[in-house]
User: Which sequence fits this backbone?
């Protein structure tokens, strides 16, 4: 038995030795892995736990206009943050800061609630303090020993409210936006400022840059040991700059002349290239007020304002194009061989016409007589275009409208653009109204009423094709943009057909035209006025046209809508002045604050012997005798109703709008 006991003790001893050796070996191996193989990794992880990165915002890229003027840039502002500490101390610091920063009692309450949620974090009081505010606080550093003052870039828009809808604005990213794939991949974090509208939103990833970081030491509970002591830093990378096709001077001028009490939009573009020169919506907002965190009172006021200042009417508002669409109906008729210069309709205008059991009126109760194509455009004769629409046919008119893009977006590089409303075919009527179309529906559609609503940008776009060789590239805002935005517009008509349409558009600003008083002294202005029916109130006034030097190609297309402007005479002078400003600047002429005939008449400076100051004009104002002048004014005001029937007679017109 003793022999067996000795062997058992030996086996146990060997087993214990083996176990101890194994454990020691494992510990040595783990130690070797931790200290040698993965030492750097664990050291980095330990360092990460010890340090916290405080973001250093990257300056956003500068946005320039076509002439190199600054649309948006980054300037130096200052972030003020209170260090973690006792609640009473933080509250006292905020009260002391109030006179320097203009903090109200409600602001302090909000900041304290934020502090109480995360008491160990820095409490940012503002991220847009000015240099004078920061300097005043630094001068009193002894009184603000627990305050951090840090430089940071701040977005700045020199033109302010003039470019609000176009530039957009930047503000803090939302929780919902943080979940979007493009922002997750770009490493965006809570607190980052991003573009929320306009160019800033459309080109966010181009303009944004990459934030840097400043590293500070934290304790085991994650509290910052000394926020002013920097352990290390990673420099931010500035965003890319971009150049727009915009003419900032023209944009600001448009802002200055648009009636402050009215609502509407102005679009100006180069017809041959699709370059946007001005894109203005009124009322507007100042994007500088939005930088960082939008004050709740301001945000609430803007979103409850019945005039909708945040609404970009140039690309999002849809209006019946009214008489401005008559030129498009004419272009479709020319393309199909139904119309040419001198074409007259079989039924003369006597103030209205009957067709398929419906009597539809012309805006002129006395009628226009037997006018040709140019005269029908000049006088905006409903009866003429009723017959053009009937000849084209509803099915073909809807097909042509779809082909010309009236059901689509233009493709401009801006967010929130809405497509047009236009029938896609005969079945469309039954799908939307529950009944098939009646034969007379084509009459409404032909004069820009019925189920036809378009944005100001769409109308400027299609008139760019009229102003060119019958084609137009899609509109764009970024200079040198190589993105394929589609095939553009092709009216499918030759130079002879275009000339037939041009003659009517020229006469609109001549003696018998609906925009006589908007004609220009130095340049030729062609265009079309319109009055869009509005069931909710007064009608809207339209003008769409193009202008250039006599005997030269058109340089600019303008589209203007004035909500509740009643007639086209509310919009045409704005379009004329915008075109004149751009052309004067382009060709080196001095600025003329009164470029239109109406303004010169009223100022007593219509020109030598009552004629225009430059040759090649065929306008001769009538003698300013009391009776004839008032009669002419009444006739012009009546004619500028464009395509619409007087309000009390609309039930007879059959228009859906």
Assistant:
């Amino acid at each position: 038995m003793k022999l067996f006991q000795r062997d058992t003790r030996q086996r146990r001893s060997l087993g214990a030795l083996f176990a101890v050796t194994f454990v020691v070996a494992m510990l040595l191996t783990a130690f070797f892995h931790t200290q040698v193989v993965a030492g750097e990794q664990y050291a980095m992880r330990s360092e990460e736990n010890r340090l916290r990165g405080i973001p250093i915002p990257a300056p956003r890229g500068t946005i320039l206009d076509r002439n190199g003027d600054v649309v948006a840039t980054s300037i130096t502002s200052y972030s003020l943050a209170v260090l973690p500490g006792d609640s009473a101390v933080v509250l006292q610091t905020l009260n002391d800061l109030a006179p320097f920063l203009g903090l109200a009692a409600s602001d302090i309450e909000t900041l304290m609630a934020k502090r109480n949620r995360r008491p160990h974090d820095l409490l940012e009081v503002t991220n847009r303090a000015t240099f004078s505010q920061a300097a005043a606080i630094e001068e009193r550093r002894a009184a603000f020993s627990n305050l951090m003052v840090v430089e940071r870039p701040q977005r700045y828009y020199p033109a302010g409210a003039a470019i609000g809808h176009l530039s957009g604005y930047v503000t803090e990213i939302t929780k919902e936006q943080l979940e979007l794939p493009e922002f997750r991949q770009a490493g965006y974090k809570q607190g980052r400022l991003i573009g929320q509208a306009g160019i800033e939103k459309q080109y966010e990833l181009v303009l944004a840059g990459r934030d840097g970081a400043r590293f500070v030491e934290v304790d085991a509970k994650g509290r910052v040991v000394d926020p002013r002591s920097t352990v290390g830093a990673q420099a931010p990378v500035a965003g890319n700059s971009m150049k727009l096709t915009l003419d900032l001077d023209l944009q600001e001028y448009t802002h200055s002349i648009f009636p402050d009490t009215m609502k509407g939009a102005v679009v100006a573009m180069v017809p041959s290239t699709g370059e946007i020169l001005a894109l203005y919506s009124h009322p507007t907002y100042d994007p500088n007020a939005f930088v960082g965190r939008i004050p709740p009172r301001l945000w609430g006021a803007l979103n409850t304002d019945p005039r909708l200042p945040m609404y970009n009417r140039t690309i999002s508002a849809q209006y019946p194009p009214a008489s401005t669409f008559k030129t498009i109906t004419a272009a479709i008729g020319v393309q199909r061989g139904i119309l040419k210069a001198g074409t007259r309709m079989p039924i003369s205008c006597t103030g209205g016409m009957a067709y398929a059991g419906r009597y539809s009126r012309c805006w002129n109760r006395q009628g226009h007589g037997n006018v040709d194509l140019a005269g029908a455009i000049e006088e905006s004769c409903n009866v003429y275009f009723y017959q053009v629409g009937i000849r084209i046919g509803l099915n073909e008119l809807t097909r042509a409208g779809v082909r010309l893009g009236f059901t689509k977006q233009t493709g401009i590089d801006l967010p929130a653009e809405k497509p047009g409303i236009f029938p896609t075919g005969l079945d469309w009527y039954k799908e939307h109204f529950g009944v098939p179309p009646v034969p007379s529906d084509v009459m409404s559609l032909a004069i820009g009423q019925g189920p036809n609503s378009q944005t100001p940008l769409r109308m400027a776009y299609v008139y760019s094709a009229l102003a060119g060789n019958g084609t137009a590239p899609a509109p764009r805002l970024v200079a040198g943009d190589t993105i394929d935005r589609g095939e553009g517009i092709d009216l499918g008509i030759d130079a002879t057909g275009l000339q037939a349409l041009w003659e009517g558009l020229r006469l609109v600003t001549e003696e018998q035209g609906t925009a006589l008083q908007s004609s220009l002294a130095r340049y030729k202005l062609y265009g079309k006025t319109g009055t869009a029916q509005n069931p909710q109130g007064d009608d809207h006034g339209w003008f769409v046209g193009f202008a250039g030097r006599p005997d030269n190609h058109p340089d600019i297309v303008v589209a203007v809508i004035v909500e509740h402007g009643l007639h086209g005479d509310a919009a045409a002078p704005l379009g004329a002045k915008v075109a004149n400003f751009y052309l004067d600047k382009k060709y080196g002429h001095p600025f003329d604050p009164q470029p239109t005939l109406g303004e010169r008449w009223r100022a007593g400076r219509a020109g030598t012997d009552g004629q225009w100051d430059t040759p090649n004009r065929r306008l001769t104002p009538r003698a300013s005798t009391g009776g004839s002048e008032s009669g002419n004014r009444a006739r012009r005001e009546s004619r500028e109703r464009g395509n619409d029937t007087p309000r009390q007679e609309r039930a007879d017109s059959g228009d859906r709008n």
